[in-house]
Amino acid sequence: MKLRDYELFIFDFDGTLNMPSILVRLNGFFKKRYKIEYILSHKELFQKKKIEYRNEKRLEKKEAIYNAFYDIYSIIFKPQIKPGAQELLKELKHMKKKIALFSDGKEYRVRRELAMMGLEEYFELILAADSIKIFKPNPAPLELIVSSFKVPKSKSIYIGDMAVDVMAAKFAWIISCSIMDGMGREKDIIRAGPDFIKKNLYDVLEELKK
Q1: Are 171 and 46 contacting, i.e. CB atoms less than 8 angstroms apart?
Q2: The domain spanning residue 70 has which CATH number?
Q3: Which end of the chain, C or N, has fewer beta carbons within 10 A?
């Protein structure tokens, strides 16, 4: 299938639609569950039912100190839109595609930054992991989004910039598209095995028009 054949486009936020700050990059660096080696060796941790995610929640609690630092920094941080983001979202809207967002970031920050960048209006649904306490690469949030739109998984695609985004999509049994100009390391993304690999959002836009 070509990109234009998909009905539901779900986007990651940090590093995919915006230019991530230093603290966002550091936050991602310290998250053990973002490491491809950890994900591949602990698949069972991220493929259980919601009620069984106790170990995963403990991992998130250990990262609280980094989240706290970002909360302070985000008060003065001015988000920068990623080149090609608005053009891509506008084209998807023009094509009458369904557009959603799933981020591991805090909901109030994600929504505020989307509004500041003028992107919030493009999304029919915005879901942040902290609002449901389920985090990547757990597939439950992506499955929730897909089911809410009543779109087949085979017609849904998750666009992100890290290996953890690819693995979340794989665990959810939906298609993944990686852009290589974000926070993820190229070798990690390739190892995760995305269905589509693009240099940047402009390349996604160009592919979409074919």
Answers
A1: yes
A2: 3.40.50.1000
A3: C
Structural domain range at position 188? 3-208
Amino acid at position 104, single letter: D
Q: Give the pLDDT band (50/70/90) at residue 63.
A: low
- Look at the chain and report how many structural domains it folds into: 1
Q: How high is the pLDDT of residue 209? A: 87
- Per-residue confidence band for 28, with pLDDT thresholds at 50, 70 and 90: low
| Bridge partners, 196 (sequence order) | 177
Give the pLDDT confidence score for residue 54 in this predicted structure. Answer: 44
Helical H segments across 42-162, by residue range? 54-62, 64-73, 85-94, 107-116, 129-132, 140-149
pTM of the model: 0.85
Residues 6+ apart with CB under 8 A from 109: 70, 71, 74
Q: Is the peptide bond before 83 cis (omega within 30 degrees of 0)?
A: no
Contacts by residues 198-201 (CB-CB < 8 Å, ≥ 24 positions apart)? 200/82, 200/83, 200/84, 201/16, 201/17, 201/82, 201/83, 201/84, 201/85, 201/87, 201/88
**54, 46 Cβ separation under 8 angstroms:** no
- Tokens matching residue 56: 């995963």
pLDDT mean over 45-74: 56
